[in-house]
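Quick one:
INPUT:
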């Protein structure tokens, strides 16, 4: 992998968030377990494996997690928009959308499928936009958030881990490689080519 390219802006880390599965509510009368309720970590560093950040798990591996959903990033720029649109008294904060990385500086139209990020000792690659599930509606207390996220394209993106390692919870992430002729996360979400 090449050295960080000074022409690529850095991805700023606002927060690193993890959670273990717990009951988040009920759906059709049944308790729902999920690790969507991410909380900012206080440690200085974490270990990132090929599947998870230290302290983070998924409750339902049939639809969440795995190599292509090891880390979920979400732009902090969206949090105020959601707070206003959903008319919340309490603002959404880091981890509110189930993201591991609350970021700043890059949005879905700027992040491309295949981008490689250097984060501490680890290397990650952008894989796909998020497809929201009903659990997001439970934790936000707004069932319409799914429809809204699909319509507005503020999905965030999943990353696979190319190289595991120790990662800091503060500081920048450097974009080290962009593949030519790849589509943005936003275009992938909307099916544009």
């Amino acid at each position: 992998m090449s050295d960080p390219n000074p022409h690529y802006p850095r991805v700023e880390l606002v927060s690193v968030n993890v959670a273990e599965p717990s009951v988040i509510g009920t759906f059709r009368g049944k308790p729902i377990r999920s690790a969507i309720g991410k909380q900012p970590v206080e440690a200085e560093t974490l270990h990132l494996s090929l599947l998870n950040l230290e302290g983070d798990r998924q409750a339902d591996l049939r639809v969440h997690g795995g190599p292509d959903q090891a880390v979920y990033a979400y732009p902090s720029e969206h949090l105020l928009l959601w707070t206003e649109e959903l008319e919340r008294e309490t603002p959404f904060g880091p981890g509110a959308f189930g993201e591991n990385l609350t970021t700043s500086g890059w949005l879905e139209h700027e992040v491309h499928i295949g981008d490689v990020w250097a984060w501490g000792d680890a290397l990650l690659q952008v894989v796909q936009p998020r497809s929201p599930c009903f659990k997001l509606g439970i934790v936000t207390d707004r069932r319409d958030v799914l429809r809204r996220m699909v319509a507005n394209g503020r999905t965030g993106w999943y990353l696979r881990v190319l190289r595991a390692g120790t990662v800091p919870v503060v500081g920048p992430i450097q974009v080290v490689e962009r593949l030519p002729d790849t589509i943005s996360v936003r275009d992938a979400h909307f099916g544009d080519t």
